[in-house]
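Worked Example 4.2. Consider the chain below.
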Amino acid sequence: MYQARKVIHADNPALFPYTGKSIGVAVLDTGIYPHKDFRFPLNRITAFKDFIKKQPGYYDDNGHGTHVCGIIAGNGSLSEGRYRGIAPEAHLIVGKILDSKGNGSINHILKAIRWVIDNRQLYNIRILNISVGSENTEVDEEKSVLVQSVNAAWDSGIVVVVAAGNNGPKSMSVTSPGISRKVITVGSSDDHKTVLLGGSRIHNYSGRGPTRRMIQKPDVVAPGSDIISCSPPYYNSEGTYTARSGTSMATPIVSGAAALFLSKYPHLTNEEVKHYIQATATDLHLPRNQQGYGLIHVEKLLHAPDDSSCK
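Applying the procedure from the previous section yields the following structure tokens:
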């Protein structure tokens, strides 16, 4: 099983001093449990908005959102550093758009994305993580309201990172909004493993491109099978850790990497961040519509020279 931080081999602070500090990452999911890994020594849950029940305090009645947030920004406090996220000093802006069963409406997602756009300067939101998706029924994918919404977030300057979905291995199986040509769409690099998803044991689950418009997707891949991260409490009041699988878990690895990169180069645009993530990825010699540009390589990303003119 993967521990999120091991994916990038960046545990040596002398070599990798970047932690995502001051970078805001918005997560639209099932919410967030106030796990110790987000609250100690400082509370890094900067904002929470419940689009489902309108409750004021943060909570997660499913666990998916807490797991995603832990992969991005858990600092390992509860485990004495054993289980840490990619960017352990990034702060989190969380919108609850899914209920206890992981279901939600397009209307909730659209409102949440607008909330993120409207508050991007207030909370220094540089990244938006969406580890949810749905099958697209629009004849013209570009006109999908969900695609248009994430495109609006991208056009506002936010790095939008979304899951490719778990409907693989057939072609054209990337879910919406991952079909957007603008956002960074993430697949699982290790979906050849058999994992438990939705009560069934499956493999080769990562969504494959291209889109109906023949856009090459996903953009990159990251580990998504049996990723260990934060969980709401089952055995103690502080919360625990658990393993989950899917492109939902691969996506926050890339979001965390983007937070590290922006903490090193805060002036970069989202287009430049996307370029560097793609350009430094490792070719796995798999079909383009399965791996995109390849496996994200955070060490190489963090060592990339600041050449903002490189396109």
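The mean pLDDT is 92. The two ends are 36 Å apart (CA to CA). Compare this with Example 4.1 before moving on.
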